[in-house]
């Protein structure tokens, strides 16, 4: 005999699954239509989900997207090791090839949480150690993840200046959404994220997102090097190595072959 369903729980999980599978936020009417639920029921459930942080409302667009609590669930999955176990040997191989320290990070609210670090021989210790959290907009890993998100989702994560946290005084730092948007536009055009001295003075990083089967960023792989040590033409080749590792990790998460 099967376990009886709890209607409200079933409907709530269906809403979360729908939002997780969408490329961007959805209107309540669209959610109701896609799930064949009464609009009143959808609004009540969205209110409860918003109260607990699993859903965020985008008033300008009259749409709903996943909230920070939902993002935390995905990083909790990573903290329980599957992603780290799959990613660790790939990262070790990447570090061995490029002779630079590398790390794997996952989104954690407005931060990134580092779950794997592989240090190149002779390289200095980094702040991006395992279990360290850093503001997403400062890091190459975080910028790679943000650049792969829909713009509305990024705007919802950073609604005001108070959303931007800094490690040290940086006159040219990202302290407002317009600056973040400019950095993310450049990241998309370039094909990889670049961070120069925003986390640690004198160090730069290149980051690439790890995408799931829907094209949603679930993690990022990055490598770090002394500022000025990598010429622009070399940076593009280095980014290709990082991209290959990220693509392989994405493929292995979902049990498919990496594209050649």
UniProtKB/TrEMBL annotation:
It comes from the Bacteria. The keyword Cell membrane does not apply. Keywords: DNA-binding, Transcription, Transcription regulation. Residues 69-255 form the IclR-ED domain. Transmembrane segments: none annotated. Residues 6-68 form the HTH iclR-type domain. InterPro entries: ArsR-like_HTH, GAF-like_dom_sf, HTH_MetabolicPath_Reg, Tscrpt_reg_IclR_C, Tscrpt_reg_IclR_N, WH-like_DNA-bd_sf, WH_DNA-bd_sf. This is IclR family transcriptional regulator. The lineage of its organism: Bacteria, Bacillati, Actinomycetota, Actinomycetes, Micrococcales.
């Amino acid at each position: 005999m099967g376990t009886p369903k709890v209607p409200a729980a079933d409907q709530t999980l269906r809403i979360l699954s729908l939002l997780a599978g969408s490329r961007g936020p959805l209107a309540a009417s669209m959610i109701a239509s896609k799930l064949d639920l009464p609009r009143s029921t959808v609004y009540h459930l969205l209110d409860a989900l918003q109260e607990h942080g699993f859903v965020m409302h985008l008033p300008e667009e009259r749409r709903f997207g996943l909230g920070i609590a939902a993002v935390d669930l995905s990083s909790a999955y990573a903290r329980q090791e599957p992603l780290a176990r799959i990613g660790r040997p790939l990262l070790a191989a990447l570090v061995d090839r490029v002779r630079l320290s590398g790390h794997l990070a996952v989104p954690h609210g407005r931060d990134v949480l580092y779950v794997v670090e592989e240090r190149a021989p002779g390289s200095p210790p980094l702040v991006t150690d395992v279990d360290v959290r850093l503001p997403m907009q400062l890091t190459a890993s975080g910028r790679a993840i943000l650049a792969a998100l829909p713009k509305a989702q990024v705007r919802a994560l950073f609604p005001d200046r108070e959303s931007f946290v800094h490690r040290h005084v940086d006159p040219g730092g990202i302290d407002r959404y317009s600056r973040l948007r400019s950095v993310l536009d450049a990241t998309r055009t370039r094909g990889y994220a670049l961070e120069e001295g925003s986390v640690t003075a004198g160090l730069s990083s290149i980051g690439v997102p790890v995408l799931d089967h829907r094209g949603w960023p679930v993690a990022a792989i990055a490598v770090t090097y002394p500022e000025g040590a990598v010429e622009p033409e070399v940076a593009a080749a280095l980014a290709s190595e990082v991209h290959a590792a990220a693509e392989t990790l994405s493929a292995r998460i979902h049990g498919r072959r990496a594209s050649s």
